[in-house]
Amino acid sequence: FEGGAGKTTALMELCSALASKGKAVALFEDEYRALTRWEEDTTWREAWDARCEVFISDDMGPLEAAYGEAEQHGFEYALADTPWRVPRVEPHHHRQLQLSSCARHVDAALEG
Question: Shortest CA distance to 63 belongs to which of 92, 84, 21?
Answer without folding.
Answer: 92
